[in-house]
User: Fold this.
Amino acid sequence: MADNGMDRRDFMKSTAAGFGGFFFLSSNEIKPEETTKKPLKEQKIIYRTLGKTGIKLPAINMGVMNSSNPNLVRAALNSGMVLLDTATTYQRGTNEAMIGEVIKERPRDSYVIATKAHPPENRSTGLYTKEATEEDYQKKIDASLKNLGLDYIDIYHHHGASVRESVLYEPVMKALEKAKKAGKIRFIGISTHKNEPEVIQAAVDSKFYDVILTTYNFKQKHQVEIRETIAKAAAAGMGVIVMKAMGGVQLQERAEKPVEPVPALKWVLQDSNVHTIIAGFTTFDQMNLDLSVMENPTLTQSEKAHLQWAAFQTGLYCQGCGQCLMQCPEELPIPDLMRAYMYVYGYRNLSHSQDLLLSLNLPPRVCGDCAECPVKCSIGFNVSRKIQDVIRLRDVPAEFIA
Assistant:
């Protein structure tokens, strides 16, 4: 049931219009340049090449944002995964250091590290503030090197761009270019959580970035547009990495009805222009399930049916369409607030949600002056209730959050 007063029939009708391009590829259309080998436990691993970088990666690797367990990271590497994706802010700045402790025991050519930093931004417009200087970004790169204990980082992503102007923001590009020339990073990436087609197209047009990290999942109403720009990026030689393949973890809010990971991951892997997925598993069982997808990434008929049903569940995944922004009299960064909500109720990552909330420069009183919320979410979220629910986390002392 939609949250904001839409009945189920209206919600299904509006959502169906957005999902008109929901696609599946037939098995003979899945044409990754795949090789396999058998690491521990005779596990089959599918490899794809990350664009012109030439790096061969398993089709599924580890996104480490939600994990603080070094033994899980070691297990991922021992299982045959190669890429570890992190960021300067994950686990309140400790995630990079934890990974650094794990990889210092290993040969440098046995793993690939991707990390990222987000420039200071006006969250409502997506444009960077005057604090987003070349010097500030250089400091972020140097901090990542120190935290990881590395001489160089394989992929450094310009993180969280949401508009074309930010993709082409000269101070950040200069900092990345200088770091690459100095040997501090091998390849320059850019990541995006919303407005993905515009961001990816801008990255292609720039001829500057080596890798794109983008959200891409079966729940996105604009999945066809994302697929088309991903194809352009791959054709231009860019490496394509996908995050948030699960589309928000939960299918039904506050209910233990999770997205089925196997069909969701397979759905992404059917696109041969996707070179790898970073999966955010937090348990050994989840890791093994993700690894099992590479045994046979072809979707079964029952899995297709499940995805077609699941695509119409409201869930927790904000599409980032931005239609809400013009409706809010307080000009709140609603997509970011919805993402903070998802981090709590989907990922169970309270610290990352709180950090995001504190970065938004919100007014002291949020959603308190409107008698009735005028925002009508395109997928049926009760925006006001979600904001009032998650905003409470802002006032919880950090030491109380594990």
